[in-house]
């Protein structure tokens, strides 16, 4: 039986950049589980590092419990695993938010901390992605490079309202103003979508330390050039951001889809037990 780790190749790196003395980004990826998590923390006294670490830890914990059939879902058996993936990701974001917010309330040095978050599950030749803030997911399919997430940011709201153009936004001084973040308030609204996955696709998860420094064309060209070696590709993306100034922490995770992966492969086969 095909295992997800045979169908998916993953590689990623995180870097402090050239101007920060510590790294507040946290990443995790696991091809066997089809899981990718990236968080970009914010807050003084290194609290951003605490927030992003909690977020990634909680997402991994919830997904692990779900795949061990310990996660309570109250649904009828569907035609696909989308409802299950939806519930798992939304629960993961919820518990991450609770944990970060609770820590911030109880520890004065962590007051006001929060994090952006983008997390995804690959299953049944599909991808479910949940995100909060301006960390992004892109897809390279053939020669088409597409941003699959939409920033929860002040600039994106201005673009949507027609006040500024996307090109204006690239040169704005308000790049880091997010309108949603995990852990800032007692509740959080994540945005969640599902996408079909095709063999040959390459997915990029990144923090704004990459997307703010390099334009989409340069990012796409880099991924294309290193499509056969995504470990080297992730290093080149970090280098690209640093070559352009490296003003922020930089994180990049690449996922290359080598072949289709039906629902009964790997650990996702346990999901069927949740609906019986």
From TrEMBL:
Entries under InterPro entries matching the protein: PP2C (IPR015655), PPM-type-like_dom_sf (IPR036457), PPM-type_phosphatase-like_dom (IPR001932)
Main EC class the enzyme belongs to: hydrolase
Its EC number(s): 3.1.3.16
Top-level division of the source organism's lineage: Bacteria
GO molecular function, one term: protein serine/threonine phosphatase activity
Gene3D superfamilies: PPM-type phosphatase domain
Occurrences of domain PPM-type phosphatase (ranges): 4-257
Alphabetically ordered keywords of this record: Hydrolase
NCBIfam families: Stp1_PP2C_phos
Protein's UniProt name: Protein phosphatase
Organism of this sequence: Iodobacter fluviatilis
Gene name in the database record: stp_2
């Amino acid at each position: 039986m095909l295992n997800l780790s045979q169908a998916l190749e993953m590689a990623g790196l995180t870097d402090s950049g050239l101007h920060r003395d510590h790294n507040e980004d946290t990443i995790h990826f696991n091809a066997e589980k089809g899981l990718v998590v990236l968080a970009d923390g914010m807050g003084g006294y290194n609290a951003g590092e605490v927030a992003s670490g909690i977020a990634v830890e909680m997402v991994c914990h919830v997904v692990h419990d779900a795949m061990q059939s310990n996660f309570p879902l109250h649904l009828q058996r569907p035609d696909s695993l989308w409802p299950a993936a939806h519930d798992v990701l939304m629960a993961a974001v919820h518990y991450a938010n609770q944990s970060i917010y609770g820590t911030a309330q109880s520890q004065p040095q962590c007051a006001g901390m929060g994090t952006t978050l983008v997390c995804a599950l690959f299953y049944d030749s599909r991808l479910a992605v949940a995100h909060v803030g301006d960390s992004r997911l892109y897809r390279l399919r053939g020669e088409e490079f597409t941003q699959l997430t939409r920033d929860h940011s002040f600039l994106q709201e201005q673009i949507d309202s027609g006040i500024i153009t996307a090109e204006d936004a690239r040169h704005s001084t308000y790049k880091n103003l997010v309108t949603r973040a995990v852990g800032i308030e007692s509740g959080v609204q994540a945005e969640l979508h599902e996408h079909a996955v095709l063999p040959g696709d390459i997915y990029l998860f990144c923090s704004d330390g990459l997307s703010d420094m390099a334009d989409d064309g340069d990012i796409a060209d880099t991924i294309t050039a290193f499509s056969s070696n995504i470990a080297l590709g992730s290093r080149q993306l970090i280098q690209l951001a640093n070559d352009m100034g490296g003003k922020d922490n930089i994180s990049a995770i690449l996922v290359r889809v080598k072949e289709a992966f039906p629902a009964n492969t790997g650990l996702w086969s346990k999901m069927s037990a949740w609906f019986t």
